[in-house]
Amino acid sequence: MTRVYTLVNQKGGVGKTTTTINLGAYLAQLGQRVLVVDLDPQANATSCLGVDKANVQSGTYEALLGDTKIAASILLNERLKLSLLPSSSSLAGAEVELVDELARESRLRKAITQVKDRYDYILIDCPPSLGLLTVNGLMAALDGVIVPVQCEYLALEGLGQLTQTIERVRSLLFPELMVRGVVLTMFDSRTNLANDVVAEVNGHFPNQVFKSVIPRNIRLAEAPSYGLPISAYAPASVGAQAYEALAKELLKSDGVKVS
After folding, report:
1. At 49, is the secondary structure helix, strand, or coil?
2. Among 118, 176, 187, 242, which residue has the fewest nearby CB atoms (within 10 Å)?
3. Residues pairing with 37 in the sheet
4. Residue-wise over 45-62: b if at least 16 C-beta within 10 A, else e?
């Protein structure tokens, strides 16, 4: 059974891409067949997994515009046993080019169906905005959205906007769209504010917040510059332990046995 989750938050800098690649890496390490879909024109997930976005020949852009079969664009990292549908700067033009296309909101969902059966998990990394690309990501979230939330006050304001967007997509396009869970990121136990945000988010999303909280960690910040997830860069760090715990928590709640 394939599970498709979209990681989304229109506020930048909340750890969305970091969560996508590290959760994906640990799911792969735990024996799952994983595909990461980079839906962001900034192509940060692509770079963080060691792929030069300037040299991407085909990827998410071509999949959305129907120029290429999605399978031909997927890259496999043998070391990580992790697959990637890369992004590039050309994806920035997709919002305009898709406007006149038929069923433009469902292009990504349609593309993913071509390869869905090859994977246990498909994780979609959305841009930090609420445009047509993000709507495509939400429409493809067949098993729900995962929302990374930074443990800072301004993150709560963005969370309210995102909730409204999810409700609009649910009412107009995809009634089954749901929030799979909220991941608290960049947690600093030394501050009262971080603990207040945790309590506030749990109040907004009762029983939907993952117990695994991602701390502020210098190793997590360093790993992208080496083109590696934390599992390969600093597996003994507290950041690595937190993402491994998150992957195991997700698997367990999905009913997947973890050894």
Report:
1. coil
2. 176
3. 85, 124
4. bbbbbbbebeebebbbbb
